[in-house]
């Protein structure tokens, strides 16, 4: 099978190669082999490839994690009883492979049935950013009904997921985000959007007393600004996925994929794809370049394979005007 392999840590254009690898086989009862139809890129993928996150991977390895595809083989563990060979599924591939490949081997916590109300290309965009937002907002930051939440980077992929989860699942009283895309963010549930190009959020929100601040975009500078301007309550909660003293990462093997699936099925969670998505497999470097340059306007998704069964729709087959609830 063809796969994009990181041969050593360094600049993606220098270390990533398309190689031919053996098709993986089920090795344990709780594993399944999935034919990958679509896969998506997250910033953490190129950070790992560059060596910014020590011990995250050992080279050589197949890059990326998010995928959507069809089950072609599975073990007999009861943990896989809800999926069958031929089912459309999605998830993250971390434990035994990567998603920029024609086939991927996944464990039971890395796979779930694809919600019927999204296309395969949309499904491939969902897992990591949604799992991250779910885990941090509900489990780490413990957002409660009626609380005030500030999301820095409201139009990042994680920010889009976080806005919807904070408002539609956790019922935050007020969700404020920073972004230059006001219409998009408000359509996702944001009550207020501060355009960072026109005003400094730390000045506008000075002494605002937020219960929770979730940083998806800035890192140390955001933490410093929050502290200096009293944006957060004294007993408020803060977390960042990009750096600083409150830096945290998602647990990719956490039990939240089914929770995310329910949100998607209920129409409470949907992600926007970048206008260039889906990319062709051989154009994977264009995805890396666009993400590293900060020019992505939605999730970067590639088409890996054609669906021979014909039931997996791409982005052009779905109604772009259909709003999430």
What fraction strand? 15-25%
Q: Number of helical runs? A: 10
Unreliable residue stretches: 315-325
What gross morphology would you assign?
globular
What is the terminal-to-terminal distance? 40 Å
Percent of residues in helices comes to: 10-25%
Order of helices and strands: EHEEHEEEEEHHEHEHEHEHEHEHE
Q: What's the multimeric state?
A: single chain
* Helix-strand category: alpha/beta
Number of strands: 15
Radius of gyration: 19 Å
**Average pLDDT level:** 92
- Biggest sheet, open or closed, and with what strands and sense? 7 strands, mixed
Care to describe what's here?
This protein is an alpha/beta fold and 325 residues long. Helix content is 25%, strand content 24%. The protein contains 10 helices and 15 strands. It has helices at 12-15, 43-49, 120-124, 127-140, 157-169, 182-187, 201-204, 220-229, 257-265, 284-292, and strands at 2-6, 16-20, 31-41, 61-62, 66-74, 88-92, 103-107, 112-113, 148-152, 174-178, 192-194, 210-215, 232-240, 279-280, 300-303. The strands form 3 sheets. Strands 3, 5, 6, 7, 8, 14 and 15 form a 7-stranded mixed β-sheet that branches. It has a 5-stranded parallel β-sheet with strand order 11-10-9-12-13, with helices on both faces. The longest helix is centred in the middle third of the chain and has 14 residues, at 127-140. Mean pLDDT is 92; it is low at 315-325.
Keywords:
325 residues, 10 helices, alpha/beta, 7-stranded mixed β-sheet, disordered C terminus, 5-stranded parallel β-sheet
């Amino acid at each position: 099978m063809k796969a994009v392999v990181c041969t050593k840590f360094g600049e993606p254009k220098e270390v990533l190669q398309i190689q031919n690898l053996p098709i993986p086989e089920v090795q344990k009862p709780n594993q399944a082999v999935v034919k990958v139809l679509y896969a998506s890129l997250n910033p953490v993928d190129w950070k790992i490839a560059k060596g910014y996150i020590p011990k995250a991977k050992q080279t050589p390895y197949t890059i990326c994690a998010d995928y959507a595809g069809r089950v072609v083989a599975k073990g007999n563990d009861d943990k896989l009883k809800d999926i069958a060979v031929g089912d459309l599924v999605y998830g993250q591939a971390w434990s035994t492979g990567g998603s920029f490949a024609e086939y991927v081997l996944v464990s039971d916590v890395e796979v779930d049935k694809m919600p019927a109300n999204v296309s395969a290309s949309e499904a491939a965009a969902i897992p990591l950013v949604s799992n991250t937002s779910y885990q941090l907002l509900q489990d780490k930051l413990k957002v409660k009904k009626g609380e005030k939440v500030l999301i820095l980077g409201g139009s990042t992929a994680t920010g889009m997921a976080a806005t919807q989860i904070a408002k539609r699942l956790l019922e935050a009283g007020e969700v404020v985000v920073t972004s230059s895309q006001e219409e998009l963010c408000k359509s996702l549930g944001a009550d207020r959007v501060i355009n960072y190009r026109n005003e400094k959020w730390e000045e506008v929100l000075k002494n605002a007393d937020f219960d929770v601040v979730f940083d998806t975009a800035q890192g140390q500078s955001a933490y410093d600004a929050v502290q200096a301007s009293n944006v957060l309550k004294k007993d408020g909660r803060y977390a960042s996925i990009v750096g600083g003293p409150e830096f945290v990462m998602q647990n990719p093997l956490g039990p939240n994929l089914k929770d995310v699936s329910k949100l998607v099925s209920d129409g409470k969670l949907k992600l926007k794809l970048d206008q260039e998505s889906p990319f062709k497999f051989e154009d994977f470097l264009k995805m890396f370049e666009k993400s590293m340059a900060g020019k992505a306007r939605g999730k970067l998704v590639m088409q890996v394979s054609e669906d021979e069964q014909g039931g997996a729709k791409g982005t052009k087959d779905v109604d772009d005007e259909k709003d999430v609830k």
